[in-house]
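Sat 14:20. Reprocessing the chain from the morning session after the first attempt stalled halfway. Input below, unchanged.
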Amino acid sequence: MTTMTFHWQRTGPALTTLALAVLAAGFAFMPIRAALQAVPGEGYDIGRMVFLYSTLPRMATALICGAALALSGALFQQVLRNPLASPTTLGISAGANLALVLAMLWVPGLLGIGRDIVALIGSGTAAALVFLLGARRGFSPFSLVLSGLVISLWCGALSAVLMLLNERYLVSLFIWGAGSLSQQSWAIPLSLLPKLAVIALLAGLIIRPLSLLDLGDSGASALGVRLSHLRFLAVTAAVALAAFVTSAVGVVGFIGLVAPTIARLSGARRPAQMLIWSSLIGACLLWFADGAVQYLAGPMADFLPTGAVTAIFGSPLLLLLLPRLKTRHRVLQEQIRHVHRHAPGLRAGLLAVAGLGLIVALALFFGRSVEGQWTLLDRSLFADILPLRLPPVFAALASGAMLAVAGSILQRLTGNEMASPEVLGISAGATIGVTVALFVFAVPGLGAQLGFASAGSLLVLMVIFLFAMRSGLAPERVLLAGIALSAMVDAVVGVLAASGDPRAMFLMRWMSGSTYNVTGTTAVTVCGAALILVALAVLARRWLDILPLGPTAATALGLPLSRTRLLLFALAGLLSAAATLCVGPLSFVGLMGPHLAREAGLTRARPQLIGAALIGAALMVMADWVGRTIVYPYQIPAGLVSALVGAPFLMLLMRRRG
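Finished this time. Tokens:
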């Protein structure tokens, strides 16, 4: 080690912390100066009161929460040996937030006496699920982060369902849940400080055993370290830190990932250095981010959640860190190459079509009466009811088929059995496109929505492709890149919604995947797009049969690899964009359809595409019907219904494939 490197490791973290503190103090200088220069008048001095009971408590909250989240992330990264571990990426904060939402709905009295306990239960449950899923894969960094992010998506979908069904009770939770640091007294910082200080002290007591983990499991065990006890204590402390912060201010994204990373890049190496400097950097980083939000947002600062803003900047960092992640993966090529099953014949195909027809008939003719009773649609009401039910049912059918076909293409193209438009962030790209359309046009029509959604999907595909090409399209890096982009999109939408922009409510309803407002024109357009794009996918069956054999074999067989991949990625993007217009960006049908088709023995490209299309169509029509009838007279969007089923499906899949 050179003298310069040694000197940087000693001084780098301190210089980084000082730089962040100076930047944060610069944003804080103006409100402090304004308050100190205010001339007291008769009665209350409003400026000083705001400074003492709002500005200063907000700064203190930012410092305390930033330090706690950074310490939590550093503990996770140290004990799991995972540079991507944090309360956000492991789903800890999302679990706490969902538990608080559930308690507010059904046991509100519990929040008055045990808010922290509720958050701890939610965080602990999320952590247990993550480690249960990761255990089958040896707690590999990829499996833990993927499990945590999937759990976060599921918790977000369930929270969205609850908010749609109980909007008048939970609407005030939206800004808070996105990580609002706005304060009106010293109550929160003063209550947080002693609890977090105790946990930080306990974390300090295990620094020495943590440093022995650098010797490896066998070396640490030989020196008397009980690894199971040490990991339990460290994970418990990290979970508690994140739970207490979420209980107080909501979900603050990616501070627990960014701060330890900055500390490591600044020269911190040993566990003691990592824990101490990560905490200080995290405190200054959140203080700086909150000051920047207040400065840029002006009067709207109290309504702009700082936690969502930090997620916008944290997601790109996750993308930049992906090349440094050591991963292990299961490749789909081997599975396809070595599976020999008899392809189902015409009889099985007719049965599948008949099954889809039965589900469509159920959605059209069976449901709830005005009184809420289950009943068949009376023949005399056909002319009145069927024109209302036909468009959403057939829009759901076409969208489900397109998502399933897109998932099949992506799985065969990337050799990744967990790839889908939803998981890879392609559907989130469509959301970006529609968001842009809302700001370009006052009321974007169907053509504008489809065009901008397609552009957004293709843009995300391009970003993922560029990041993944450096690793040879390694499946886990493709997945994590897509999920990071999805998290960034969610944060952007959260900021828009919290800003009070009326367009945000349209965007939130669209993202939930409701077919309620689908018109006949929309249904015909989506069905036409499905016929054309699915037919193009079937025509590309030869490419999809050859690509899983590997790049060498594909090139030897005369396949132009780069052009083929580009065209198939573009086709998957168009399929995803057209489907997302009707059922939202998070349905998981693109994941479930191909897997169920494969389980049915459909391994060749053409039968798998057709089978996945039929299965995806059936799943989405069923989700639409369940959403319309299960909590009548309320309606749960089809996209959220399928997401609530699809995320657990992905968890079970990860558990089986370990």
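The domain at 414-656 is CATH 1.10.3470.10 (ABC transporter involved in vitamin B12 uptake, BtuC).
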